[in-house]
Design brief:
6-stranded parallel beta sheet; alpha/beta; binds flavin mononucleotide; Rossmann fold; single chain
Length: about 190
């Protein structure tokens, strides 16, 4: 297999045993050949991130996928901790901080709220694009390419096994597309 881009999936879910959606997506991701899957809560249950290890992993990949459930219009606590300590001055930005330049960043997110909720008329008022602005700007500051997010909406009502399986398949196909340098198939 010829790998066009080395894809790193950083999986961030604090309660995998309670997860229905991300557990399925993560299982599908783990099956994709030639990508690296890294479970941050498994690696750092005490939230003590190994900065050198994480930076080495980033340096060794071309596309970084951050997979997490949407919590308070953001992500779980370890995601923030990871961003705070890993994206150091001199590594990710600032003088000499060019190690992430040119790499892709893709957010793979599940939300309890349905798609309509994430619109002006919906009860969350803002679009996903707007709510993800801090993440997008983080990528841009680091010279990364912001890729279209993969979003599974409406997880509260997502109980149907067939629908869950379809999301997992779509996610695995997206990861394979990134790996192969094929334009992602739009949903
Ligand atoms: C602490 C917490 C905060 C949450 N905040 C949001 C939110 O801001 N917007 C939203 O749509 N869903 C929110 N949810 C719902 C989760 O996004 C949803 O449970 C998750 O995507 C389901 O994925 P899982 O089955 O892998 O856990 C929240 C859930 C928790 C536990």
């Amino acid at each position: 297999m010829r790998v066009h881009a080395r894809v790193l999936v950083l999986f961030v879910h604090p309660a995998l045993q309670k997860s229905r959606v991300n557990r399925r997506l993560a299982a599908a991701a783990r099956e994709v050949d030639g990508i690296t899957f890294h479970d941050l809560y498994e690696a750092y249950p005490d939230l003590h991130v190994d900065v050198a290890r994480e930076q080495a992993l980033l340096a060794a990949h071309d596309v970084v996928v951050l997979q997490y459930p949407f919590y308070w219009y953001s992500g779980p606590a370890l995601l923030k901790e990871w961003l705070d300590v890993v994206l150091e001055y001199g590594f990710a930005y600032g003088e000499g901080g060019d190690r992430l330049r040119g790499k892709g960043l893709l957010a793979a997110i599940s939300t309890g709220g349905g798609a309509h909720a994430y619109s002006r008329a919906g009860h969350n008022h803002f679009t996903m694009r707007e709510l993800l602005a801090p993440m997008e700007q983080t990528a841009l500051l680091c010279g990364m390419r912001w890729l279209d997010p993969f979003v599974v909406h409406g997880t509260v009502h997502l109980t149907d096994e067939t629908a869950l399986a379809a999301h997992a398949t779509a996610y695995a196909e997206l990861l394979a597309s990134l790996r192969d340098g094929r334009p992602p198939v739009s949903a």
